[in-house]
Amino acid sequence: MTRLVALSDVHGNAVALAAVRKALRTEKPDLVAVAGDHVLNGPDPAGAVDLLREMEAEGAAIVSGNTDVAVADFDYAAAFPWMSDGVPDTFRAATEWAHDALGDERISWLRRLPSERRLRAEDGTMILVCHGSPGSQTAGFDQELDPSVIIERASGTDARLIVCGHTHIPEVRDLGWKLIVNDGSAGYVFDGDPTASYARIDLVEGEIVAEIKRAEFDALAVADAISARGLPGDVYRAATVRTGKLVR
Question: Which domains are seen in the chain, by residue range?
Fold first, then answer.
């Protein structure tokens, strides 16, 4: 058996990431995957990166997300292609703040992350770790997508298991020939449960069993830290962390 724990979308919430990391000691995974969007929006991007780098040193496979591209290089068209009318000032302010808070050395680490990683379970099953979907950091597996689009996006890899994030809503979607596990968000979740979500996935002789798990953290303290920062849009970011629902 191979046990994989997947998380993503920490979004600068080092407190939530620490809670998930503590839970990993109980889960005892063979593999750990972190599917991007590490630093934007939360109050402690540097702390989040430092924890992630410790996890990487312990063997975690970490990929980049679309907001990591924005923070590292201010390439807003690449990070937010759906914002055809321009990126709001609230996004730019938070992006620039996170960039400055990280400093040059952490930014260099963020830049070197790959957009995808492929792992192998003990039974040979291929696992793709990506942020949005195979081949894309920005086109995710949104719940409201037409099933034909889901199948088209899933067909972009030979991997039997696709591990992703991006939507901030945890979901396990079994297509029969492939399993998509969206772990939700370990820091900025949108499903109404203000805890950190992650996924535990067991692979045994070609069978895959996935479960969404939650780790509690002090959401109110993190929301207060965001509010105290005082950037444009922080009142909405704080409310999102506090309630577990996207507020904008």
Answer: 2-243 (3.60.21.10)
